[in-house]
Amino acid sequence: MQQSLADLKSRGATLVALTPQLPEHSQGLIDKHKLGFDILSDPGNGYTAQLGLRFALPDDLREVYRSFGVDLPVHDGEPSWTLPMPGRLVVDKTGIVRAADIDPDYTHRPEPEKTLADLAAL
What we know:
By secondary structure, the chain is α+β, with helices and mostly antiparallel strands. It has helices spanning 5-10, 23-33, 46-50, 59-67, 72-76, 112-120, and strands spanning 16-19, 38-41, 54-56, 82-84, 87-91, 97-102. The protein has one domain: Glutaredoxin. It is 37% helix and 20% strand. The protein has a two-stranded parallel ribbon. The chain has a two-stranded antiparallel ribbon with strand order 3-4. Strand 1 (16-19), helix 2 (23-33) and strand 2 (38-41) form a beta-alpha-beta unit.
């Protein structure tokens, strides 16, 4: 989405990401990729849980994550081993969700062009 940031801004949009990671763990990602948008922290995936978009990792996936050096309880500051489903929401200026692309399979993510098209349809 960083590559589409200029297009989004030129259309009057604001890009915000939401993550269960603690802010101190997100900062490295922001610095490394020179992200020009805000990343908000959702401790314990509380908000995503309210939306019905949080899922618990099964034990076998926890081991895969650990084998890659990813310890979610450390990064997220809580022990649940939960993640949000990846998704994008297009929200209008009044706070109404006008488009949503959410898929429980993290490998299926909408292309930035889809988000730009949804924005153009407002």
